[in-house]
Amino acid sequence: MNEKTQVGIIGAGPAGLLLSHLLHLQGIDSVILEARSRKYVEDRVRAGVLEQGTVDLLCDTGLGDRLRREGLVHQGIELRFDGRSHRIALSDLTGGRSIWIYGQREVVKDLIDARLEANGSILFEVDDVKLSGIDSSSPVLNYQKDGRDYELNCDFIAGCDGFHGVSRKSIPAGVLRTYHHVYPFGWLGILVAVPPSTEELIYAYHERGFALHSLRSPEISRLYLQVEPGEDSNNWPDDRIWQELSIRMATDDGWTLKTGPILEKGITPMQSFVVEPMQYGSLFLAGDAAHIVPATGAKGLNLAVHDVHKLAEALIAWFSRGTEELLKQYSANCLDRVWRVQDFSSFMSLMLHRYFDDDGFRGRLQRAQLKYVCSSDAASRSLAENYVGLPHV
Ligand code: APR
Ligand code: PHB
After folding, report:
1. 168, 156 in Cβ contact below 8 A?
2. In whole angstroms, what is the distance from residue 176 CA to residue 43 CA?
3. N- to C-terminal Cα distance for the chain?
4. What is the 103 CA–ligand 1 centroid distance (Å)?
């Protein structure tokens, strides 16, 4: 079966879905091919912090209804160490910008609803997606659905298929330069049916390891613990998790952590990954397909949104005015922000995690940095402007 579209998109994560939505608003046709089911994609528990610029983009493009109703605006975060909390006043330090708590799965649900309402084409549960002709101006996507073979002829392909996807691997050997750094720690994350024990996110540095208290809603908390990189979550029965969280987050003034039923438990490795360039011929990579950041800066989703914003602009310029300039600049424009965010995420990660092979030196540096960030206006302003997200340019 032969079909045709202007932009063939691989992956129905936030990157692929938002790209399809932005193109549709300018009358550009796309088809999304997704390996998993709709339910799987919508239920996947992921990040939950949206930068101001991400929220603005979603609201400006008609995706803000539920986000404005249910999203929680946060104007600060806490850094906690040595039994004390220090507030970083994000909004005061950044001329009024804030972050929003709204789960990635809610963003994905809103996007899928918007695409389907507009008769957008999202094909779930497709198998064996293959790219060909990406070095030409008529690339092709072959795939299987319900046991039948299909061919989708495209003007461009957007590889939005995440870190393990097929699109990056379809670029010939020798074209991409890869940067990969694996941090010597992982995160054990839990989703809990209990009201958050805090109003703002708490990033805690402790000699037993990092801990983070986040949330999803007034009824649902999201917490993380630093663990060994290849840790098995079976080594972490619920009691052990709660005990460790209470120790690492304890304060001198008797703050208490509310516990509740754990709905979900998972381990995430901490790594930085970037490929350069983010384009080859008529294939453009966006989101996790091109880069991964350690979760400490809460940037993965926001970076994916920035990529597709740039890619949509470039494709719109091409289809509506025939100009190639922005497509040519796509990779360089994205990589500037990718490396800024890598640097920030690495800074947060190195400041907050315990290195278990530390002879004491690194710990002293971390304390010095934490104290500086919490006491110097310049240092806390720098953290704040990166955390709320630099403006999209
Ligand atoms: N064929 C079709 N679909 C695929 C294939 C394939 N071969 N491989 C992967 N996919 C799909 C996955 O099932 C997934 O739904 O591509 C999608 C990629 O989505 P994400 O992993 O969410 O990546 P992205 O859209 O770039 O979003 C980045 O997700 O991982 C978080 O922290 C990250 O928040 C960031 C965001
Ligand atoms: C989350 O809520 O999942 C979250 C929050 C902050 C982070 C990482 C993850 O830095």
Report:
1. no
2. 33
3. 41
4. 16
For 132, the 3-state DSSP assignment is strand
C-alpha radius of gyration, the chain, whole number:
21
Residue-level length of the chain: 393
Note the pLDDT of residue 2: 76
Q: What is the DSSP string of 143-182?
A: EEETTEEEEEEEEEEEE---TT-STGGGSPTTS-EEEEEE
Q: 287 CB under 6 A from ligand 1?
A: yes
- Condensed to tens digits (0 to 9), the pLDDT of residues 3-40 reads 999 999 999 999 999 999 999 999 999 999 999 999 99
Determine if ligand 2 sits within 6 Å of the CB of residue 204. no
- Amino acid in the structure at residue 55: V
Contact, 10 vs 63, CB < 8 A? no
Q: What's the rounded Cα separation, in Å, for the pair 76 and 90?
A: 5
Distance 31 CA to ligand 2 centre (A): 31
Which residues, including other chains, have CB under 8 Å from residue 247's CB and lie 6 or more apart?
Answer: 206, 208
- Looking at the CA of residue 47, tell me the nearest atom of ligand 1: 34
CB of 161 within 6 A of ligand 1: the answer is yes
- Give the number of the atom of ligand 2 that is nearest the alpha carbon of residue 216: 2
For ligand 2, atom 2, the nearest C-alpha belongs to 48
Decide: helix, strand or coil at residue 111.
helix
Residue 144 pLDDT class (50, 70, 90 cuts): very high
Q: How far is the CA of 185 from the centre of ligand 2 (A)?
A: 16
**Could you say which DSSP state residue 48 is in?**
-
Whether residue 392 has pLDDT greater than 90: no
Q: Which residue has the tokens 């304060």?
A: 251
CA angle 346–347–349, rounded 5-degree value: 60
Question: Which residue's alpha carbon is at the smallest distance from atom 33 of ligand 1?
Answer: 300
**Cα–Cα distance between 121 and 118 in angstroms, integer?**
9
Q: Quick check: 76 and 380 in contact, CB under 8 A?
A: no
* CB-based contact 369:382 (threshold 8 Å): no
Q: Is 159 in the pocket of ligand 1 (CB under 6 A)?
A: no
